[in-house]
Amino acid sequence: MLFTGGTTGYPKAVVTSQKDLLGVGVDIFSLALPLLGRICELPPGVGERLRGSLGMDSPRLGLRFAGRAAWAALAAMRRDAVGRFITRLVKATPFPVCVAVMRQFPRALSGRLRVLVACPMIHGVGWGAACLFSTLGAQLVFLPSKRYRADEMMEVIRSERVGVIALVGDAVLKPLLDEIEARGEEPESPFLIINAGAPISSATRKRLRALMPRVFLLDEYSSSEAMSIGVQLYLPGEVAEAAVARFAKSPYLRVVNEEGVDVKPGEVGEVITTSRYKGSYYFREEEASSRVFRVIDGRRWVFTGDLATLDEEGNVVLLGRGSQCINTGGEKVFAEEVEEVIRSLPQVDNVVVVGVPDSRWGNAVTAVVRPKDGMEVTAEEVKGFCRGRMADYKVPKHVIISEDIPITAAGKLSYREAREFALRELGLALEQS
Prior knowledge:
The chain has 15 helices and 20 strands. It is α/β, with parallel strands linked by helices.
């Protein structure tokens, strides 16, 4: 059983099988493989760091020749018409291909690749990263202290020559970037950051590119119920300008309306996903299980509860969780969109946006804001910053400045507790909600 994080409600236990859990790696690999062709776009110097972190310079591994052959093959695929045809075929990424390639990793890596799991092992991302990379033959590295410290993380990266960092959103990445900026130098060994479980804000992504310009960023869209859903790869130096998360299209990923029909670009629907490896049901939660885990045409699909649309290329653009969508005066406001803007305010460390009852609007957009250490910010400053950056109806009606923001044990924002906190601070009874 894998417990959900309790972000929007109480945690539930997802019942799954060992085969499903180990198969997450196949899911991730099948989603990421079509993106590997973009490695040919690497700027000078980045390839050397990648090969060094993978131990490709060791003659015993024979990876130098394999690496050069792979680079040449990928380059040829980009130049050659036949190669482009093969690339289109690879996008389907057949299951046997994924398994066959993954079986070569343990022998090739032989403990050379060091992966820092920089998030709690109680979190699905930490546990999943540990299982996946140990299965692939990598060496796992963990932080020694019980509480996260960015200065300690920097020392571990340096001393252990970490190549890959697995983390969860701004909560881990922002303090690390603060530490890098304070020291004035980028750690040499990392070539890949894997983010899952929580979004990285656009402001933090831009700082990442400025402070760690030679690092790949792999954004993974995942959940306890569906495991891996989608991935997006950003090359070193590449900045995702969009404030919303965007993931590559996949045959295992759909966005459907209330009738279960696929939406057209620009329309909003619910994200559903399928593959060979998905959770089965919630333990002792039959009603919830029937809503989330459904069989369509003989295949099991997971209804994520996340709302999204499609861009013109068919990629999935996440808007937010349906349960976090605030209906104010008949207009829908996605909490994540407002949070993204407020987080870009220099004095703000973190924010959570919820809806509270309002006699006029039905629900009022409410932001609970935590300032950065040693800085101050007022409610009017937050509202003024939002005006002009979003529609007026999205600007928070209430802004609560607090030194503490409710966080789950897994390190995610707790919208349920944040809403209860906002109701208390505003003098509104829980019964009203």
